[in-house]
Amino acid sequence: MGFALLDYVIVAVYLVGVTVAGILISGRQRSSRDYFLGGKEMSWWSVGFSIVASETSTLTFISIPGLAFTGNLYFLQLVVGYFIGRLIVSVVFIPAYYRGDLETAYDFLGKRFGLSLRRLASSVFILTRVLASGVRLFATAIPVHLITGLDYPTSILLIGGFTLAYTYLGGLKAVVAMDVVQLFIYLGGAVAAMVIILQHLPHGWTDVVAFATANGQNKFAFLNSRTGTTLAGFLMTPYTLLGGLLGGTFLTMASHGTDQLLVQRLLGCRTRWDSQRALMLDATFILLQFGFFLVLGLCLYAFYGGVTVQQLGLSASDEVFPKFIVENLPTGVAGLVVAGVLASAMGTLSSSISSLASATYLDLFKATPWGRGLDERGEVRWSRIFTLLWGLLLIGGAMLFTNTKNPVVELGLKIASVTYGGLLGTFFLGLFFKRTRQADATLGFIAGLLAMVAVLAFTRIDFTWHTFIGSAVAILVGNISRLIREQWFTAPDPASHV
Predict the structure, then answer these.
(1) Which end of the chain is less crowded, N or C, counting CB atoms within 10 A of the terminal residue's CB?
(2) What's the pTM value of the predicted model, to 2 decimals?
(3) Are 218 and 73 in contact (CB under 8 A)?
(4) For residue 175, what are the domain limits?
(5) For 75-119, how does the pLDDT look when each residue is reduced to its tens digit (9 = 90+)?
């Protein structure tokens, strides 16, 4: 059916509307605490929905239906791990964060081990987040390009420019408020697509079940108990039951317990209890959301008569949903769904910009001669400078990936996964191993990073195991360092305090 004038109008109204609304809702920022933490007075439910929107990129919006289209529901094993991981973060990490008046995730490491480790961890986060976010912004432009016909640079500028405007002016309050709006916009677009598919099928949901179970297959299968014949084979098999549960749990403990992108929101709640409620709202909603997108993939499979991706003339499963949007959605609804694609992209991008700026200002700049002694007005000015800087860098970085065959795209995503295991292991050293000191934690952190580089470079171990391996190495090396230090050196580390 194509993308009509009405669809472009809907997208334009959405872009301008969320930008203006974000700026108006945020109010005035009087200090860096207001700008980066919302004054620590944000409601738990808005933070919970904001976390959902922040972690739901366009890759999720487009890719998850494709997984079910070509396979089954094995991905749900990972999602159950996501739920367990959030529960552990809520019980273990959040109480530790609220025992001190922390500003960033890495502030915990600074108070536990010393300022140098805080700066190291924050610097590694900044480096990998820039790579991952630049790649993700470019990846977001792909469906926008396919659906609207706009070229890649224009798509990137549309997404990046409007997102940067309300993030720069409104701070975290604007980011969280617009995340909530954008969450329901992209879910509304996806629900509209599913309703249209079911109305198109002669027997509705019955046809979805029939195609999903035809020819002896069971695309509703969600448990994969296969273990393989060798340990190497098991570790390389995607979406096994143990790999999914462990992988999802450790990945979530790292992302929601150590990544400033999401921890920033949890620190912006009024109380520890509010932060815990926000995270469990996120846990419940994300389980339902992934289940919905997987079922949408089964509906698309029935809509296209159970054919393969190649029979549709496509090269990847990620292209199935965009193809449906372009060819089958009526005028107006297509604009709504594209607004949903943009909403999922902008929610993730605004979070990336804000977390990068907050880590740069609070972890690195604030302790320098230029950052000390600033009045509240100066704090906001520098906070906005770093927000503008990172926003422009992410937009410019995404432009470098406009050659879709560039292998740097894959490299950037892999590098982003390197840090999680080392960071999580280092946080565990601080939480559970009271005799570890700054040197032990630093060695563990570096060992975790190097272990993940080796895993990615020399093995084909499935990504579900990466965070677990990196974390285990960091904990092991940190404790070996502690044992050696206690055996040979008995003087306490003056930089460490609990």
Answers:
(1) C
(2) 0.84
(3) no
(4) 5-405
(5) 899 899 999 999 999 999 999 888 877 778 899 999 999 989 999
